[in-house]
Amino acid sequence: MRPFTYERATSAEDALARHDGETYYLGGGTNLVDLMRLGVETPARLVDVAHLPYDQIQLNPDGGLLIGAAVSNSALAADRTVRAGHPMLAQAVLAGASGQIRNLATVGGNLLQRTRCSYFQDAAKPCNKRNPGSGCPAREGEHHNLAILGHSEACVATHPSDMAVALSALDASVHVLGRAGPRTIPMDEFHRLPDNEPERDTVLEPGELVTTVEVPPLGMPSSYRKVRERASFAFALVSIAAALDVDGGSVRDVRLALGGVAHKPWRAWFAEEALRGRPATRESFLRAAEAELDAAEPLRDNAYKVPLARNLIVRALTELGEGTAS
């Protein structure tokens, strides 16, 4: 591991003043420290932002939430207002990691975790995310758990966060602070598809600090479902955050986002559009899923994700329509 210095920021402004090209912000460290041990990330300086005053969950008058970036994942999943008004968010966090990791991991850090692609994690192998232009061996190598949507010649990695998938479906916004001032980024625009710059996971500018996440009120039943290779904690093969509002047997509103299928949480806009105003039936859910997955471009060993995602969409919506989702 490269030697580094450790500093604790006293305010957001202090954190910004300490940041330079070789500085990383440190939240819970559950992802960053692992990558430092592997030699994948090599910061010269860590600035600890986990103790800044962004560790509260605020219930807004309209029923929405303002979640501080330093809130632990455990605190978020256990919060009564989150569990009551935004159950898919609590379920996603609980599905993401063990209790020990949730106790350390922060909301801001969860949003910024890097991909778990094995080639990215192996500093001895080429990887366009680590070394742009070196190639993407995953395309022809081990890719059974990688992207089927939105990937490029440069990268087929998937985004690992469960929480981010739920926040995408919830139309959340991310508030950040940089030297140019504050700005708000819609959750669906916060993470990037790889295109020709797979090294950029988000649209954050250098030094920008995530401060809070704002979640609008939901007002309809929701759930998070995750398919993984083992019953214990593992990254999603495919996951879904779903919310469904049925009125008189027809879909009045719906929210869908998929995890484990793309370089970012995949908001299923085509499926949503195909469902609004349609009968809340399995046939409608199946047609909507097929409309979304028509753009899938699976690789040699991950075509199984297409029927898996289709079936998961149908199951999640059927359970919500029948009122059996937990």
What is this structure's SSE topology?
Blueprint: E1 5-8, H1 12-18, E2 23-26, H2 32-37, E3 45-48, E4 57-59, E5 65-68, H3 73-78, H4 80-85, H5 87-96, H6 99-104, H7 107-111, H8 118-121, H9 163-169, E6 173-178, E7 181-186, H10 187-190, E8 209-215, E9 222-227, E10 238-247, E11 250-259, E12 266-267, H11 269-275, H12 282-293, H13 305-322
Parallel strand pairs: 1-3, 2-3
Antiparallel strand pairs: 4-5, 5-8, 6-7, 6-8, 9-10, 10-11, 11-12
Features:
13 helices; 30% helix; 20% strand; single chain; 326 residues; alpha+beta
How does this model look, in words?
The chain has 326 residues and is an alpha+beta fold. 30% of the residues lie in helices and 20% in strands. The mean pLDDT is 96. Strands 4-5-8-6-7 form a 5-stranded antiparallel β-sheet. It has a 4-stranded antiparallel β-sheet with strand order 9-10-11-12. Strands 1-3-2 form a 3-stranded parallel β-sheet, with no helix packed on it. The protein is globular, with a radius of gyration of 19 Å. Strand 2, helix 2 and strand 3 (45-48) form a beta-alpha-beta unit.
